[in-house]
Amino acid sequence: MPSTTTDLPVQRKLVEILRIIKESEDAIGARLIADRLNERGYRIGERGVRYHLRILDERGMTKKQGYEGRVLTHAGFMELERALVKDRLGFVITKIERMIYSTSFDLNTRKGNVVVNISIVDLDDFDRVMDCIEEVNSSVYTISSRINLIEESHADVRIPKGTIGIATMCSITIDGILLKNGIPVNIKYGGLVEIRGGKPHAFTDVIAYRATSIDPMKIFMSRKMTTVTQTIREGRGKVLANIREIPYSAKSNMEEVLTAAELVGIGGLIKSDDKEIFLHQRKSGRIKIPVYAGINTSAAVDEAGIPITTYPVSQLMKFEDMKQI
């Protein structure tokens, strides 16, 4: 997008609008685009969106599809691939940090917002999907056994007819709880933990959240790198996890907070005698905390050959709306 006709803030809005249109499976209108932009920190109304859409139409990057809204053209797809690489790299971590800050769950009242992943499956596969989820939720390889079944009107992602949305708790909730309890937290890496003999052995692969334009969990799942079900049944395999960092001076407070969280059913802390392997040691005044990913449930469904579409770190949801299974 030439800078001679639009300044950088406008370019960023145009790129974000292209991204939103691409993420929508069907044509999408200005009102819904405005809602999505506001969720991502762009304060712009429907009228402003229409102005930006006219620019994209003139450049041949979007086109109208009747009264339903806009879709991307081939030129729009190509521009989205090229545009503002640095901005794209920062999108994942920016969204995560916003979710961390917005987490309001209170350990004492057991009420408030937690972060959830949203997975979409066909209704015909629902029973098999729930069998997979229950197996993972009865293991140590997730952070909570609470889920919520959601319909289109209650989700931030589109749930097509004939499908159902399943919300599982995201491990980013841990970061939000730590922050709410006065502990500065910095999410660092998403990766794979190898399990041997039923015990965590080592992180075999990691991706820095600040160095990717795609959520690391989604990358590992798309590459079929997990063996969650095998790990549960045989005590060996690879599962998803992530690492956050806090000041070493907050270690004792962190332990108190995570113990309290575990009592209300929010766990997932990776525990091992080998602190060196898990980076859970004092270094430069910081300490790194590894936690199993809530999205391991979705990975298990995918491993079973059941079609599933998953959106990691998807939205906030009231803890009290999530039910124990």
UniProtKB/TrEMBL annotation:
Coiled-coil intervals, chain numbering: none
A Pfam family assignment: NRD1_2
Domain spans labelled NrpR regulatory: 89-323
Residue stretches making up the Ribonuclease R winged-helix domain: 15-80
Membrane-traversing stretches: none
Protein name per its UniProtKB record: HTH-type transcriptional regulator, global nitrogen regulator NrpRI
